[in-house]
Amino acid sequence: MNALRLVLPGLSLSVAIALLADWSARLPGPQSLGLSALTLAILGGMLLGHTVYPRLADMCTAGVALAKTRLLRLGILLYGFRLTFQAVTTVGWAGVLIDALVLSSTFLLAWQVGRRLLGVDEESVILIGAGSAICGAAAVLATEPVVRAAPERVTVAVSTVVVFGTLAMFLYPVLHALGSTWGISDFAFGMFTGSTVHEVAQAVAAGRAISETAATSAVITKLLRVMMLAPFLMLLSAWLAGRSSRAQRPSARIALPWFALGFLVVTGFNSLALLPAPVTATLVTLDNLLLATAMAALGLTTHLSAFRLAGPRPLLLAAVLFLWLVAGGSLINATVLRLMP
What we know:
This protein is mainly α.
């Protein structure tokens, strides 16, 4: 009971921000801009974090910390209820290969440019790379427990993928108008959109701005890319553990992210269609609330000084990755679809 009293104030505040963000995300304005509840939650958290929250921090710290850790991991696990393995068949092995190539090339480019050319700190490079390569803010949040990044670096990473993902929503319909003159189908352009746009909501918005066909293939390709989050986290954990061992840290071991395994298990269970559709829809709604609550808690504990300390290099890194997603992603899509029509 004492533990509940300890976490209730901060948890209630985070949930309240998340609920407001979820309601706001359903309004026409935010929907037209592709602003998800996650984005609005972190913005709302940051607004309160710079105004009201400092006076409440002492009694809210425990609950906010709970939202940023345990609720976040549970939210990533429940994300599997949005996906099914059957969705892979719609875009075929070409979609799988495209997503795998886009993901791996984007993350490797992030490491090369971020660490070797720009000198960005390792945590930020991994977070920005994951967010750009996989699924935006959700990927950043899922990667944070593996790298154990500082909250301010998580916020900076989330902000960069939101900026360029939003830009993509306006750019891709223009690119489609150009591509249609070259005979690119709406379905193929939807695959390009889903394999390269950061957030699921942003991919949906960009696809719908083109056609329902483009929106459908964009969503399926995007969700397939999201499925790759779990194996990515496992490989990242193994890689980080291996680097620690080579640095003569005998205690280093693979920190297997249980929530990533849970994500795959839930996706597999959801693929069996054992639950009624209303139950699945309720679980997805709950998942939205959990992730938005985690984002709100993150925003509450982040200050604008973090952006000044980070400097322009993380934003520059995200810009380079965005250009690669557009140019390199189009090349990957065109090549794979030509070889695997």
